[in-house]
């Protein structure tokens, strides 16, 4: 893989253009402190209205500034609204309210909707844009590590049902993705760490060289300069683009990106149900460690590879979140069975064959495993996490 130039070469204001490499690709424009260039990029696309939706939590940090720049360039074509913070916006109620509001405010097929915030805000707005009049154009301005290196590199737009995550959704490609790494300077460390978990995942599933690179760059306290952060973001983006290049459909080989997510989504959902604060990447980090143990139990990988997960996630990245006390083996299996209803098949997992490769015995990266084995691996994992917490 190509690694980005050293951080000392950071040039604020300079915009680099990449592509999402998907079946319906989107240009991804990335740089540090590049807001001044946004009007020119937007101006390439004719629109009657620009509807801007900004996550409440970043309105003061960066939202007001983005809105002011757009108003200066496009005057009364610009409308602004604020979304509830983070995951709270991914509801059917919010989706309906947003769509009705767009219609009432005069949105047409010539309008553009812009989402600014983390993966949650971009998911909600992307879904609304994909549904309105069977699809209008939208722009994503992700402001978190997860948003910039993971969720914006997928055309998957979704909200949650009352029973699970991302149950209502579609594929809808953004007109453009605008990644300003300056926004990450205000992102809380815990959220940033959670986003970096998916970068580690990219190394485990596809690219051992990238995992080595991360081992050299990650530091638990996350004390990065703007240049270091920019370099890290660019390289994690490139690590995911390499995977998407191999499967622009996101449905075949791309399924390896779900490593750790079958367990992770179940853990995240159960934690939320019991009022425990757990961020997506933290749940996925538990999920990856469990998937590694399951791969070990099936004789696919060594103890050393299992230990490498712990080393990268806990020692290198500094994720020390306690496994939620409310998550039990039975509860997690029930949550996974319920979440899996959408496939109509038994629960299946992405498993590791070695560092950098997922198991694919019969042309399918999703592997069904005897639930008794899964149960036993979960019992062992949860017991070891509980004793670690007591130590
Ligand atoms: N479509 C996909 O393929 C995909 C991939 C990964 C994650 N996701 C989704 O993304 C969501 C998680 O997104 P997330 O982790 O980006 O968090 P988020 O969108 O839930 O936001 C979390 C919090 O961070 C705050 N915030 C955002 N940017 C900030 C900044 N720069 N400075 C300070 N605070 C800031 C927000 O106000 C919010 O309170 C989940 O819903 C997940 O399902 C989707």
UniProtKB/TrEMBL annotation:
Keywords: Cobalt, Lyase, Metal-binding, NAD. InterPro entries: Dehydroquinate_synthase, DHQ_synth_fam, DHQS/DOIS_N, DHQS_C. The keyword Lipid metabolism does not apply. Its cofactor is Co(2+); NAD(+). Residues 195-341 form the 3-dehydroquinate synthase C-terminal domain. SUPFAM superfamilies: Dehydroquinate synthase-like. Gene3D superfamilies: 3.40.50.1970, Dehydroquinate synthase-like - alpha domain (1.20.1090.10). It comes from the Bacteria. Residues 83-190 form the 3-dehydroquinate synthase N-terminal domain. The keyword Lyase applies. It holds the Pfam family DHQS_C. This is 3-dehydroquinate synthase. It comes from Noviherbaspirillum suwonense.
């Amino acid at each position: 893989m190509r690694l980005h130039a050293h951080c000392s070469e950071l040039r604020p204001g300079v915009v680099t253009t990449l592509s999402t490499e998907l079946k319906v690709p989107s240009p991804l424009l990335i740089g540090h402190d590049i807001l001044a260039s946004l009007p020119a990029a937007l101006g390439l696309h004719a629109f009657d209205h620009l509807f801007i939706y900004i996550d409440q939590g970043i309105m003061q940090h960066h939202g007001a500034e983005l809105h002011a720049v757009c108003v200066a360039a496009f005057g009364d074509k610009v409308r602004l609204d604020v979304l509830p913070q983070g995951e709270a916006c991914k509801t059917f109620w919010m989706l309906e309210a947003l769509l009705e509001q767009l219609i009432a405010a005069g949105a047409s097929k010539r309008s553009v909707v812009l989402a600014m915030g983390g993966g949650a805000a971009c998911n909600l707005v992307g879904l609304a844009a994909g549904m309105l009049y069977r699809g209008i154009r939208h722009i994503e301005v992700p402001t978190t590590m997860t948003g910039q290196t993971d969720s914006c590199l997928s055309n998957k737009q979704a909200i949650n049902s009352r029973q699970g995550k991302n149950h209502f959704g579609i594929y809808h490609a953004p007109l453009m993705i605008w990644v300003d790494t300056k926004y990450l300077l205000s992102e809380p460390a815990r959220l940033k760490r959670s986003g970096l978990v998916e970068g580690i995942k990219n190394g485990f599933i596809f690219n051992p060289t990238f995992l080595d690179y991360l081992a050299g760059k990650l530091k638990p306290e996350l004390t990065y300069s703007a240049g270091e952060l920019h370099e890290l973001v660019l390289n994690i983006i490139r690590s995911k683009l390499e995977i998407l290049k191999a499967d622009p459909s996101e449905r075949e080989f791309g399924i390896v990106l779900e490593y750790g997510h079958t367990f992770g989504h179940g853990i995240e959902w159960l934690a939320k149900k019991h009022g425990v604060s757990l961020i997506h990447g933290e749940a996925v980090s538990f999920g990856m460690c469990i998937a590694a143990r399951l791969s070990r139990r099936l004789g696919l990988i060594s103890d050393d590879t299992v230990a490498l997960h712990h080393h990268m996630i806990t020692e290198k990245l500094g994720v020390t979140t306690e496994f939620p006390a409310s998550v039990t083996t039975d509860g997690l299996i029930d949550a996974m069975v319920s979440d899996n209803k959408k496939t109509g098949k038994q629960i299946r997992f992405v498993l590791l064959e070695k560092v950098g490769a997922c198991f694919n015995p019969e042309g399918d990266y999703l592997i069904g495993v005897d639930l008794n084995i899964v149960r036993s691996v979960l019992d062992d994992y949860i017991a070891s996490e509980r004793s670690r917490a007591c130590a």
